[in-house]
Amino acid sequence: MRDLMMITSLTENQMLDKLLILKGIYRNGFIELNKATRNYDAGLELADLFEQLVAKNRSLLTDRDLDDCQLLIVQLKLTCLDHSDRWNAFINYYDDLSQFDNYSFGMRSLLNVQKRRYAVIKRKIDRASKGKKLGNLVHQKQSELSNEQILNRAKQVIDWIEHIANEK
Prior knowledge:
This protein is mainly alpha-helical. It has one domain (4-167). It is 70% helix and 0% strand. The protein has helices at residues 12-22, 27-37, 40-56, 63-83, 87-98, 105-129, 147-167.
């Protein structure tokens, strides 16, 4: 497994605990935080790390935990690939996922929702291959945000998550 110390100061057990918190009601908030800060490379690294954590600790997790973790990992990967304009990687990953049909209801629903993005991305690839201008069809990069904008966006999403958590 990739050295956790390269990404975070958390131990493997602490990281697994964080994953088990995120995979629940905080999943969408976590995805939004990633999108708001445009930190897609880190999001992809985390998705890979989460995948490794789940594989290594599979016997410690319930079936529900496994399904929820898989949902978070897939949603994070698809979102990051989409928003970082890694169109071919998105298409390949989605196609790989679509080969299986024994997913939970949540995963089938996510893939069904992502089917629309799949079609949009296919059109973007087609347009690019024909040499047409892409203009606003590409996402803005994190480098186009100031550090202050990134922090403000992160704070807004975190405040939103805390508000939701306090309502529960």
